[in-house]
Amino acid sequence: MTETKTNQNESYPYTTVPGDALQTRIYTLKNGLTVYMSPYHDEPRIYTSIAVRAGSKNDPAETTGLAHYLEHMLFKGTDSIGSIDYAKEHTELEKIIELYEQYRATSDPEHRAAIYRDIDSISNVAAQFTVPNEYDKLLNSIGAKGTNAYTWVEQTVYINDIPSNELDRWLTIEAERFRNPVMRLFHTELETVYEEKNMTMDSDSRKLWEELFKGLFTKHTYGTQTTIGKAEHLKKPSIKNVIDYYRSWYVPNNMALCIAGDFDPDATIRLIDEKFSKLEPKPVPEFHPPVEPEITRPVVKTVTGPEAEELVLGFRFGGADSDDADMLTLIDKILFNQTAGLIDLNLNQQQKVLEGGSMLVLMKDYSVHILSAKPRDGQSLDEVKALLLEQLDLVKKGEFPDWLVTAVINDLKLEELKAFESNRGRSEAFVDTFVWGMDWARQVNRFKRLEKITKAEIVEFAKQHYAQNYVAVYKKHGQRKSEAKIQKPPITPIKVNRDRSSVFAKNLLAKKSSKVQPVFVDFKKDIGYYDITPEISLNYVPNRENELYSLYFMFDAGSNLNRKIDTALDYLSYLGTSRLSPAEFSQELYRLGAQFTVQTSDNYVYLKLSGLKENFPQAISLLDELLRDAQPDAPALEKLKEGIRKERADEKLSKRKILFEAMVNYGKYGPKSPFTNVLSDEEIDKLTPEELLGEIKHFMNYRHRVLYYGPDSPETLMTELRTMHHFGQSFQPVPVTDPFEELKTAKNHVYVVDYDMTQAEIIMLSRGAVYDASKVPLVTLFNEYYGGGMSSVVFQEMREAKALAYSVFSVYRLPKEKDRHSYVFSYIGTQADKLPEALDGFNELMQKLPESPELFASAKAGIDQKIRTERITKGDVLFALEEARRLGLDHDIRQDVFREVPGMSFSDIEQFHETRFRNKPQIMLVLGKKEQLDLETLRKYGDISFLTLREIFGY
C-alpha cells in the first residue's frame, strides 16, 4: 500500500508491504534516490548502507578493477572534505591526471619510470594541501563503527554504524562525500590496491572462485573479469576513466540509502532529502547481460597452490528475482543445513568426505549453486565429485523425507529472525533487494511462495536442471600458477598533515549533537540468578522480542585440563542413542527446529542448544538422551581418527593457521603452548569409543552453570531442565590447572617459516604487563589513537603516507583472563620487496609517538560517542558477565573507560608508548618465501631461526 506524509509544503509518499515484520518504508526522492527505512529501537544506533548499482560487471573490458578502485577513492574526500586549499591542489591534480594518461600510453620502461617520478613528485606537492583520511577521522569523531565499503559484481556499498544522535552530521558528511569525490593521493592508493591484488594471488580460494566463474560465464562479465581486475590493467591506470565511471554510475537514481535502527522516519526522510537533494539525476547506462550458451557436458578446471585440496562443483541458474531462486533456496537446504541435509547425513556424519557443503550465490542476472568438499586421506577428487553428485541424484529421485521441505522452510524462518535481530541484517536485506532490482514485497512474501512448492515440484526441477551441466574445479596441492606479482614503484612518503583540518571538518565538528546518556550492564540487575540444583546455577536473561531461545552449559575447563575433551565432543556428533541412529537423531533435532553445537577452548567449554520455544521440552529431552545414552560406534571413531590426521595435515598448509595461531603461540610460549597441547598421533590411535564416552560423562560431572536467553520464565525453564537426568547427580569441583608460562621477551629474535607466497606477512610481539583493570581506559585511548583503525597513526603512516601495506595495525592487546600478560601486537602484510621500508616504518613508530591534537581529540570523541550509544543486550549480557568473570571484574569495565578517558592528555598515552613500546625487545614472526625475503634486513632485528611446521604445530 502507499501512504503520504506531509511536512509543510513537502510530501514524502512511501511504500509499505502488509505483513512486513520490519515495518519497512520505501521512499523515492525527486532526484530518484531510493531510501529504505526500518525503525528498530534496540539501541541508540543506526546501521547505514549506501548502495550503488555498479560493480565489476560494469567495468570497461580494457580497465577491469575500476569499480573497486573507485570505492577506495571515495574515502579520499572532496573539494571540501580533506582539502586545505583546493584551488592550489586542483592545479597539481590536473597535472597528475594528464601524466597518468601519458604513463598509460607509454611502453618504454625508462620513459614510464621518468613519468612516474614526475607523478610521485607532483603528488607530494599536491599532498601539502590535503588532510589524508579526514573522512575516516570525521566518522570516528562522531562515534561511527565499522566504517568500510565493498565492491562485488553489481554493487558497491558503503557502510557505517553510527550513533542515532549523529544522523544529521553523518548525512552531511555522506551527501558531501558523493557530491564531488576528488581523485587525490591516487598513486599511494593505487599501490594499496596492488597490495590487495598480491594478496589475492596468494589466496588459493580466490583463484578457485575465479576459475569456477570463468567456466560458468564465458560471455558475461561475471566470469570474463574479476572485481579486483587484471594486473596489466592495474599497471596502466587512468584517473580520467575513474572519473568517467563515477559520473556515469554514481547518480542518485542509481543509488539507495538503506538504514535500520533508532530514528524517527518522518524526521529522517526530511533530513535525507535536505542533504541529498543536491545530487542531480541523469540517465544510467544500460547493462545488457549476455545470454550464456548452455553447458551440455562437464567443464573441468584445475587450480594448484600450497593450501589444502578441494573439489568445487558449480551449476548456473536464473537470477535472484527468478523462480529458479526459490527452488534453489529449498534444494540448497535439503542438501546441506548443518544438521539433517543429505550432505550432512550421508557425507559429513558418515565421514565420507571432509567439510562437505552446499551454498547458493544469488546475483541479478544469474545465480550459481555450488557444492564442495575436501578429500579424506587417500581419497581422490574424482571420488569426492562422485559422492557430491550422488546427493543430487537423491534429490532427483525424491529420496529425502517428506517432512524435510517443511523443516527447511522453518529453518529459513529461524535464520531470518536471527538476522533481523540486528540493524545490519535488516540493512543488508534492503541492499540485496535494491541491487537485484527486486520488489520488496517479493522478499516479504517469500515464505508464502516457498510453502506452496511441493516435493514433487522440487524433484521435477532437479531432474530438469541438474545433469552434466556443471563446472568442476579441482584444487590440487602444488606450486601456484598465477599472474606475476606487481613490483613496487618508487614512492616518496607524502606529508600526512595530521595536525590540520579542512574548513568543512571544523564547521561540522563545531556543530554539536544532542548527548545520549550511556547505559552500562548491571550484572546484579540485568541477569536473574537461580539455582537449578544446589551445585548448578542458572544465569537468566529474558527474550521479549521473539520465540527464539539459546541455552548454554558453561564449564570453566577446557583442553588445558583435558586434552581429550575436544576429540570426545567431536565424536559425540557422529553418534546416536539406543533409540535413534545418528541420522535419526539429527533428523529429529532438525524437525524440532533446534540446533546443538559445542565450543571448546583452552580454558572453557560450552554446549549450546538453540531453537524455537514451542519445541524446547522435546529438544532438551533429546539432548538429555544423547548425553546419557550415546552409543559407542567403533567404525565412526576410526573414521574420525583418519579425519583428524587429514585435517591436521591440511592445517599445516593454511597460511592463516600457520601465522596467527601456530607461530603466535610459539612466539608467546615457545615449543610447548596451548596450541601444541593436543593429542599426539600415537595417542589418537589408541583412543577407544568407551574411553571417549567416559571422558564426556566425567567432564559433565564437573560443576558448571547454565546460561539462558529466551522467552520462557525462569520457573518454567528450571522445571524443564530438572527433567534431565544430567541434573540428578552430584558434581565435582573443576581441578585447578597450571597455566602455560608465557616467555619473557628478553631480546629480539626473528622466527621465519618458509611458505610459497607473493607477499610477506609479519607479526611483531612484545610481552607487556599482567592484566590490570585500572589501565584499561588508558589502553583503550592509546589503541584508538595509535593503531586500532583507519584514522589511527599507524594506518596513516604505513598505508596512506608510504603505501607499504593493504592491511596493517599495531595495538596493545589485553588478555582475556586475569593473571595473563598483555602484548604489543603489530601486523603488516606487504610485498617481500617492501620489507626493509615496512620494518623501518614500524620501527620509527615504535620509537616515537607522532603527536596530533586533532587526531587525539577525534580518538577521545569517538570513544565517548561509542560508549554512550553502545548497548549490550539480549544474550550478549550473559557473555559480558562471562568475560568480566575471567578478568576478575564485578562490573562493566566500560564505566571506567567512560569516566576516565575525558580527563586524559596526550602526555598520558605518550608516556604509555615510551614505557611499553620504545626500545622493547620483541619477537618477529615472518611468513614468506625464503628465497624472496631480505634476510640481511631481518638480521637487523634479531637472530634468525627458521622454524619447521613440526616445531610450531607440535605434530
Automatic annotation (TrEMBL):
Domain Peptidase M16 N-terminal: from-to ranges: 45-88, 570-663
Cofactor: Zn(2+)
A GO biological-process term: proteolysis
Tagged with keyword Transmembrane: no
Domain Peptidase M16 C-terminal: 240-410, 727-860
Source species, domain of life: Bacteria
Spans traversing the lipid bilayer: none
Keyword check for Nucleotidyltransferase: no
Cited Pfam families: Peptidase_M16, Peptidase_M16_C
Keyword annotations from UniProtKB, A to Z: Hydrolase, Metal-binding, Metalloprotease, Protease, Zinc
GO molecular function: metal ion binding; metalloendopeptidase activity
Family per record: Belongs to the peptidase M16 family.
Protein name stated in the entry: Peptidase, M16 family
Source species: Chlorobaculum tepidum (strain ATCC 49652 / DSM 12025 / NBRC 103806 / TLS)
Lineage: Bacteria, Pseudomonadati, Chlorobiota, Chlorobiia, Chlorobiales
